[in-house]
Amino acid sequence: MSALKKLEIISYTDCKFSTEQGRFSMLVNPVEYSENSEIKYNNPHSVGEKSPTFKGFGGKDFSMKFYLDNTGAIRGSNSIDDSIKKLETVSEKYVGKTHETPFLKVVWGTLNFKGRLKKKDVKYTMFSADGEPLRAEVNLLISLYIDVETDEKEKNSSSPDLSHLFTVKSGDTLPQLCKEVYGSIGYVTDVARINGLSGFRHLIPGTKLLFPPLSDKK
User: Fold this and answer.
1) Burial (Cβ within 10 Å: 0-12, 13-18, ≥19) of residue 55
2) What are phi and psi of 142, to 5 degrees?
3) In 90-103, which positions are buried (b, 16+ CB within 10 angstroms) versus exposed (e)?
4) Model confidence over 119-178: pLDDT tens digits?
5) Structural domains in the chain, sorted by start
6) What is each CA distance from 30 to 79, 147, 186, in whole angstroms?
7) What is the pTM of this model?
8) Across the chain, which distance is largest between two alpha carbons, in Å?
9) Which strands, in side-by-side order, build the sheet including 103-108?
10) pLDDT tens, 28-53?
């Protein structure tokens, strides 16, 4: 029987996630976590336009809820104040050399989210007779961090390393679109197969076609 894996928040001083400066390991795994993505659209500019047109991808956030408990129910737990201070040191401690807050990696099972802390909410829900917090609910919001290289690729609409969704216009051909995205017409058959096209000589205007990264097709 494999050991129970615990979620960890690992803090790094650099955007390449190579220099670790601390870890926050949970004694009790999160109650829930979620990811939120945003897609931006341009609003129709004329009466003839029926729907918004794709503008670009917005940010992506990771949110997580977990509890800290020092009632004695969990072996090895620290005081709530000490746990909160540890969490703040890992997730918020100012990195003097870069004049930045740290870069974070949230790791648990198949989860591996890289980002930076955007918001932290702590709600204290139980206290001792002398007012010491014994239990707290913590909510974290972490914004996805994208390195400069990937960001530049996303800004480059013709990058073959990213997925693209094209709406076919009158006169478009699959070889022409493949040439535009990949710099070669050699992927026409692959793109036709991925999009379920029986042929590629006559494209219907308004059809949406997916052009995935080259690595996805090899």
Assistant:
1) exposed
2) -120, 125
3) bbeeebeeeeeebb
4) 999 999 999 999 999 999 999 999 998 765 555 555 555 555 666 778 888 888 899 888
5) 8-145 (2.40.30), 158-217 (3.10.350.10)
6) 18, 27, 47
7) 0.65
8) 79
9) 20-25, 8-12, 103-108, 111-127, 133-144, 53-69, 32-42
10) 899 999 999 887 777 765 555 566 66
Give the separation between CA 113 and CA 199, rounded to whole angstroms.
40
Tokens of 164: 């693209």
- Which tokens go with 125? 């829900």
Place of tokens 């794709």: 54
Burial of 105-118, coded b for 16+ CB within 10 Å and e otherwise, reads bbbbeeeebbbbbe
The answer to whether the beta carbons of residues 79 and 70 sit under 8 Å apart is yes
Beta bridge partners of 117: 142
Give me the residue label for tokens 């692959």.
Answer: 190
**Paired tokens of 6:** 């615990």
Q: Length of the chain, please?
A: 218
